[in-house]
Amino acid sequence: MPNNKPKNNPIRFFGAGLFIALLFFVFLFQPKVYGATADELRTKIQQQTSDLAKLDAEIAKYQAALTTTKSQSSSLKNEIAKIDITRQKLKTDIAATMKKLAIAELTIDKLGIGIKSKEENIQSDREMIAETLRQLNQQEKQGLTETILGSDKISDFLDSAGRYISLSGKIDEKISNLTNNKKQLENDKKQTEAQKKLLDDFQNQLSDQKKVADSVRIEKDTLLTATKNKESNYQKLLNEQKKKKQQVEEELNKAEAALKIVLDPSLLPKAGTAALSWPLGKIIITQRFGNTDFSNSHQAVYNGQGHNGIDFGASTGSTVKAAADGKVLGTGNTDTTCQGASFGKWVFIQHDNGLSTLYGHLSLIKVSEGQVVNRGDSIAYSGNTGYSTGPHLHFTVYASQGVKVGSLKSKVAGCGTYTLPIASLNSYLNPLTYLPAL
User: Fold this and answer.
1) What is the pLDDT of residues 235-250, one digit of tens each?
2) Structural domains in the chain plus CATH codes
3) DSSP secondary structure, 51-120, as one string
């Protein structure tokens, strides 16, 4: 008698099982919403980016206004105007940094959704591959003869064989998906780490910008107190600062002229090799090294020695970067010894290439003596401290053989003992010799 009892065909059962598993996969592993969806976060990021562009445009207007006021005559009214514009710019800088913080946070959230989804897809692919392998293994144990004999007709066998081949293809597909998802997951995690670092950087920058803004507010209050809001008092203050600057420069020049140091040229980098990097993101040179037109027209201030560095146009609060790897050998503020007569807040770094650099007229110092820094590290923010006709960065390059941080006891009335880099006159080098070409 013919046996009409259904045959136990594993592949036939697996065909139904695969369909159920796929339905289960679609239901269980569909993308989930964690608070906001990826599309909602993308929209928010675009909005914040648009707002940031408007703030950047506003900052550019303030910068242009500061550039205009720099060429105006020295008067109390103009000085107060510059300070007020600087404060408005710093306020906008802070708002822009807050936008950058928001963008970084939203980007991290968006990446988090992608990471979660990819992790679930990877787990799903692993489970599907394992189940398919189990079914294929069961089919292989049954063998070709059993499959043929267990089939009612040749079409059933061919159908079973086709599904076997299809299952093999599914494994290849899932393995390919698994590999791609793993690569995308690793990339998303790297991007997340980069965004977290940006987040930390922006938080630190925001804190620094608030400190700089406070210092500018104090600068304005100090100026108004010293001048009693009278132009005559302001001009008197300027003349006193210029006189003190001249006297301090004479004392420093005398001390440095007494240093007779023979330099070994072999210890210096070759000219034109870009041994140093630019200390600012945007480079505007306002005064070069040596006997410039400005130094020649202000002989009383420069004592005929010329300008011992280069000046960069930089609004208060611009990030100042280390020009090369090295060690901070000193920081200070000459205004605590004699207001408005020298570098103001300064940082001095000895580099690993035979050169040393000084950064002057800073608004905020971010490093401390003994700290090791790398090329491009943020070390300070530019400002208007010391003897300065407007916000800028003064940058001096020395031969390390002939310079060290020392003390200079001033005889100028109202001044005490300075702590600052002191160098032999031949140790002052032209910074443009070692900086990249413009």
Assistant:
1) 999 999 989 998 998 8
2) 10-216 (1.20.1050), 230-433 (2.70.70.10)
3) HHHHHHHHHHHHHHHHHHHHTS---HHHHHHHHHHHHHHHHHHHHHHHHHHHHHHHHHHHHHHHHHHHHH
